[in-house]
Amino acid sequence: MPIPSHPTRTISALVLTTGLLVTVPVMAAHATTGTQASSPTAQAATVHSCTYRSTVGFTCDYYYGTATISEGSSNAAAVREIQDIINVHTDYPIMLSVDGSFGPDTLTAVTWLQRHHDIAGGADGIVGSHTWDYLRS
Q: pLDDT tens string for the chain (137 positions)?
């Protein structure tokens, strides 16, 4: 069998290295179930399909309303909608668990989003009409 050329070996090494870099975070995310994943690749399989609907705006189909939602909210569908939209439709740098629990990670994400995008009403961590407008647009 002939020895592969230098470019072939280089490409093979890059493919192997890329595969290892992608595989390690995925395995780490599975080992720490229930916590934030630090890699978009790790959460890719759990992200819900989100689309734009003319009657709602951007939605991930968990919740279509715009009720005010804050930390500790019992409206799990609305919280999942917020978490998934933040994951899929914003530039927030950390993937949230889409678990319906408005805890400290979701509060941090909402506050960051409000601050970094100058959402009217300020960075209070409460998803009210202005924050919903931003998430739905």
A: 455 555 545 444 444 444 433 333 433 333 334 444 444 433 333 556 899 999 999 999 999 999 999 999 999 999 999 999 999 999 999 999 999 999 999 999 999 999 999 999 999 999 999 999 999 99
- Spell out a b/e string for 67-81, using b for 16 or more CB atoms within 10 Å of the CB, else e: eebebebebeebbbb
Q: Where are the beta strands (DSSP E) in 10-128?
A: 51-53, 57-59
Nearest Cα to Cα of residue 135 among 83, 74, 71, 95: 83
Instruction: Determine the Cα angle at 101 with ends 95 and 106, to 5°.
Output: 40
- Quick one: angle between helices 129-136 and 76-89, nearest 10? 50
